[in-house]
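Q: Got a minute? One more chain.
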Amino acid sequence: MRRLSMLCAAAGLAVTAFVAASPAEASYHLIRWQDTGFCQIWDESIPTAPWPAGYHRASATVPTFLDALVVKDNALKAGHCSW
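A: Always. Here it is, folded:
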């Protein structure tokens, strides 16, 4: 049991060091939930997919959060997304 704890601690430190060493490149895109039509800005630096899986990608990748807000505002005005 002690070896397993040490292995988990070492793995946690390795992952933390890897994340801290990687450059912070944030990019965003819009996702649209299929059942409600609600659009949400998704940060691509999050290593997991949105949950639950009833969504699709609704826009191209943009470099900043403010650009993503503009894309979402345009989608709302055009009627592609609901509130």
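A: Residues 2-21 form the longest helix (20 residues).
Q: Perfect, thanks.
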